[in-house]
Design goal:
172 residues, globular, 7 strands, alpha/beta, single chain, 8 helices, 33% helix, 7-stranded mixed β-sheet
Amino acid sequence: MDKIKGKAFMLNENVDTDQILPGYAMSYPVEELKKVTLRGSIIPDFPEKVNDGDIIIADDNFGCGSSREQAPVALKSSGVGIVIAKSFARIFRKNSINIGLPVVTCEYINEIKNEAQDNDEFEIDLINGLITNLRTHNQYKLDKIAETTLETLQAGGLINKVRKKLMERGAI
């Protein structure tokens, strides 16, 4: 898996799925979700600012609230390359990995946020578990990702992973 590189957007704790994707957007087609992603957060103009590969760095309990699977889909469709947080709501984490959106915990969020300046770019190396601020060159260790999770992310999500396994077995 290639390294992920992008500008960082900083969020606080308890970013719930309503902040990630407003309830009124649940019936929107996937290609429209990116237009309302994070409208309910402290970054309501996120859709106008985000570029492919950009990064979200957040505190505890990211993705809490309802279990709507459209929330991680909205983040991925908006171009977010990875979400790094102190912790994630379990169902949000699982939904994200299943669609191929990397979500990784890190115990150094406070340090990362304290040194970060507006428009800082970061590079994330999932294989070696590192996040690097490209302005300061400071590196921080990410929590280890399970091998099965990494396989799912490398395949682009659970459906692709299962399809690949079935093809390897000659079942399809």
